[in-house]
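Purpose: get a first structural picture of the assembly so the mutagenesis plan has something to point at.
Setup: two entries, given in the order below. No constraints added.
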Amino acid sequence: MDSMIEKFKAKAVELWKSADVAARGKASDLLDHEVGELENIFALLVLGVFVGLPSPPVQITLELIPEMERELCLMISKVATAHDPLGELFAALGID
Amino acid sequence: MIREGLKPDIHFFIGKGGVGKSTTSALAALYFARSGRKTLLVSMDPAHNQRDLFEADFSEKPKKMGQNLAVKEVDSDYWINRYLSETREQIRKTYIYESAFNLQKHFKVLQFAPGLEEYALLMAFENVLSHGSDRDVIIFDMAPTALSLRFFSLPGVSLVWLKELLTLRDLICEKKEIISKIRIGSCELERDRVKQKIGTLTARHTRLQQCFADDATHVHLVMNADRLSLSEAVRIHRQLSDIHIPIDRVVVNKLKTDDGIAAIAERFEPDRMSLLPMAANDLVGLAALQAYVEVQRAVFQGFMPARRMVN
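Result (structure tokens, whole complex):
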């Protein structure tokens, strides 16, 4: 009997934790998307020289680029979704 | 710090191409050396006229030219290549998917990127200063106007960009902190390396900007007594004023007659003008340069100004 209660308690805790993670994930997804957009803007500002945008003095780009692998990945992946920015926005907002 | 401990006096000689910046800076260097001050003359002009004036080969390593004087040439290609290879190495160390971006291809082109030449001069300038604490005077024979002005304005322009980037980065970090708090209930984020780098760069460019405006830094404007030279000198003065770099002395070089002096005196304070007459013979070789300095000793005494021109 005791073991059943223990098992039930463990399951309940596990369920609670999963629900908590899901809720926290949902709560922060939109913010995460916003951070992604901001990082993309940051990447375009610093690394714009590679795609023909006005950019800061080239030495600032060169000084920062070793620390910007994530932004570089993001900038390149944004190229893939560039043709459908509304689709990306609706996906982030959870609109089907 | 760029200028820790004892500060050497720094003199820049700038002006239009062909007015005699190299000759004037070489003469001033010889004057300082002859008056017992340990002097380093640095050629920042890609034309590197100092080797013709002294009839000697110079390199990045300072070469002794008599008592108290050493001369070196800044090789901007060396500084650009060194900088690019250091950055490339840094990328190799920090990137996981470095090869996926094909950045090496971009680096081959980047050595010709606009703006890198003045940055190379800035790196060379920092290097000279960091090794120049044993000197009393460091004289820089600058490149013609356009490159010199870009050199002087680079720290200020960089600071404007860095300020904007820092604002955006702060916003990113703030939002990442909120996400971290929601997801894992704490905000023990690794310090943002990009933000750290922006901070380092800001400190570095602020130091350079302060160094240009320092009391121990003197910018001398070299010109000839003709209208074109005067027009460009006025523009240089105005542009340097815009970035808060004062002019110490206006050197009117290669004077044959008094013609044109009055027009210059209308634009610049007469007591800040140093008039250097045209030499009777070519100023080539150490002996000829020293002989000219000896004759014009009184003019070169004026290169130790007590106050600056009001902008």
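Chain B touches chain A through 42 residues (CB under 8 Å).
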